[in-house]
Amino acid sequence: MFKNLGSSRNFLGLMFMLPAAAFLLLFLVYPLGLGIWLSFTDAKIGTPGQFVGLDNYEWIVGDSKFQTAVFFTIFYTVVASAIKFAIGLYLALLLNKHLPFKAIVRAVVLIPFIVPTVLSAIAFWWIFDPQFSIVSWTLRQMGLIDGNINFLGDAWNSRYSVIFANVWRGVPFIAISLLAGLQTVPPSLYEAAVLDGATPWQMFIKITYPLLTPIIAVVMTFSVLFTFTDFQLIKVLTNGGPAGATELMATMSYNTAILGGRIGEGSAISTAMVPFLLAAIMVSWFGLQRRKWQAGGTDD
Amino acid sequence: MTDTRVAAAAAPSDMSEGMSYLSTLPQRVVRVYMPLVMIVIVLLFPFYWMVITAVKPKEHLLDLDKHNPYWTWSPTLEHINDLLFKTDYPLWLWNTMFIAVSATVLSLVASVFAAYAITRIRYRGAQWVGGAIFLSYLVPPSILFIPLSTVVYQYGLFDTPFALILTYPTILIPFSTWLLMGYFKTIPYELEECALIDGASRWQILTKIILPLAVPGLISASIFCLTLCWNEFIYALTFINSTENKTVPVAILSAFTDGDQYRWGSLMAGALVGSLPLVVLYAFFVEHYVSAMTGAVKE
C-alpha cells in the first residue's frame, strides 16, 4: 500500500509542495487571519486582549489623524502612480529607439531599483535638508529663489517631496518592464503604418498602446500595490511629519501598534488597508486590461 | 536600375536599425537624446551626491558657499574609515548578508519543489495552488508585520536572525515559484518522458534534467531574492531589537541619527557601502535581473 502511495501523483505532489506550503501557511496565511482577529480585540504588547467587536474600527474612523492618513495614502498612490506611469512609459519609448550603448543605458536606468530603498531615501533626506540642500543651493545660485526651500518642514512641500522620491524609485521598474513589452511588438506593424502615412502619435495610439495594455495592467497593478503599502520612504524621510501631513496608513499602523503598543488598533488600521488595496487592484486590473487577443496571446 | 541596386545593398543595415533612418540627427538629438540624458541625470544624481558626500572632508559638507558643493579636490576616506572601524558596520553588513543568503537558499529550495510539482507533477488542484501562490505575492508586508510580530514572539524567534530568515521566504517564495514555473514550462516534456521510460525517479529527473536546464532561471530568482532581502526594512525594523543583530538599512538609520551635524558624511558612506555589494552583483547579472523582473510581470 505504501508503494502505491509513493507512486501516486497526488501524494508526490503534496510532498513536493510541503516546504513552500509550510512557509506560506505559518508565516503568511496564519498571520493574515490573526491580523484580522487582532483588529477586533484590545490586544496590547504583552497581553493577548479581549474581543471588543468593532470598537477599534469605530475609534479609528472617528480619529482625525486616521482620516488624514487615508487621504494622504490615496493622494500619494494616485499622484505618484500617475506620474510614474507617464514618465515610465515615456522612458520606455525612448529606450526602445535605436540608441548607441543601449545595454549600458538600460542597465544604468535600473540602478535606483537595485539600491535598497532605505539607503537611497537617506540620500534624498540629505538632498532635502532644510539648510544644506543642494537643490536649494543650486536654485539660489541661479537666482531663482531667495531663501532655502523647506522641503520636509511644510505640509504640502513634504508631500510633494516624498512623492518625488517615490516616483524616482518607481520609474525604472515601470520603464524596464514596459520596454520588455515594447520589444515584443512586431516592427512590421509600424512599417505598414508608415506606408499608410500614419503620424508618430497615431502609431502610438493605434498600435503601441493597445498592444501594451496587458503588460501595463500588470505593471500598474504592482506599482499601485507597492505605492499604497509604502512604508520605508516615509519612515526615513519624514516619519509621518510635519504634524502627520505625510502619515501613510502603513506608518500609522506601525506607530500605533509597535511604538505605541496598541496592537489591536494598529491591526485595525492595517486591516483597513485591505479593501482599499482590493479596490485599487480591481481598478488597475480590469480598468486597464483589454482582451488578450490584442497582444496576440491566448486566454491562459 | 542603379537605384534599386543601391537600395538592395543598403537594406540589411536599415533592417538592423528599424525605421530610425526616417529621422535626421538633429531631430533625434532633440526628441531622444536630450530627454533621455535629462532623465538619466535625475535618476543618477542621488548616487552621485551620495558618493561625493561620502568622500568630502567634514568642514566642506556644511559650507556650500566656500567650496563648490558639486566637486571636491581633497577627497578623504575618513567617513568610510570611521564607519568600518569605529562602528559595528561590518557586523551589520555580515548580518544582512547572512540573512539574505539563508533566506534565499531556503526559498529557492522550497520554490523549486513547488514549481516543479505545479508544472510537471500536476496533481489534483495544481492550477488552483498556482493561482493561490500568485495571490500570496500580492499580500504586502506592511499589512502582515503586526500579526507576524506576535507570531515571531510566540515562536520565540524575536530578536534573532531566524525571525528574518524564516519570514523573508514569505515574500520570496511566491515570486520565485512564479518565475521558476515559467522556466520549467519551457523545458520540453519529452525529455522527462524519455527519462521516465529509462526508469528515472522523479528526484533524478528533477536533479539531472530539469535543474541543469533551468540554471538561468535559478540565477535570476536567486539574485532577485537577494536584492529583495537586502532591501527589506519593515520586518527587520519590527522583529530585531538589539544593535548587534540589526541589518544595514535598519542599523544605519538608528546609528547615525543622533542629531550630530556632521553625521551626513558617515550616513552617506554607510548608504554607499551598503549599496555597493548589490550594485556589483547587479553589474555582473544585468540580463538575469531584467529577465527576472519582466518574467514575473509577463506571466
Q: Care to describe what's here?
A:
The complex is a heterodimer of chains A (300) and B (299). With 300 residues, chain A is an all-alpha fold. In chain A, 72% of the residues lie in helices and 0% in strands. Chain A contains 14 helices and no strands. The longest helix of chain A has 32 residues, at 64-95. The two termini of chain A are 38 Å apart. Mean pLDDT of chain A is 85; it is low at 292-300. Chain B has 299 residues and is mainly α. Chain B has two domains: 15-76, no CATH class; 83-298, MetI-like (MetI-like fold). Chain B is built from 15 helices and no strands. Chain B has helices spanning 2-16, 25-55, 58-61, 78-86, 89-121, 126-137, 141-154, 161-185, 189-197, 202-213, 215-231, 234-239, 248-255, 263-284, 286-298. Chain B starts with a helix and ends with a helix. At the A-B interface, helix 2, helix 4, helix 5, helix 6 and helix 7 of A face helix 2, helix 5, helix 6, helix 7 and helix 8 of B.
**CATH architecture annotation name of the largest domain in chain A:** Orthogonal Bundle
- Sheet-strand content of chain A, in percent, reads under 5%
Rg result of chain A: 24 Å
Largest sheet of chain A: none
Low-confidence stretches of chain A: 292-300
Radius of gyration of chain B: 25 Å
Distance between the termini of chain B: 50 Å
H and E string of chain B = HHHHHHHHHHHHHHH
Please give the CATH architecture of the largest domain in chain B.
Answer: Orthogonal Bundle
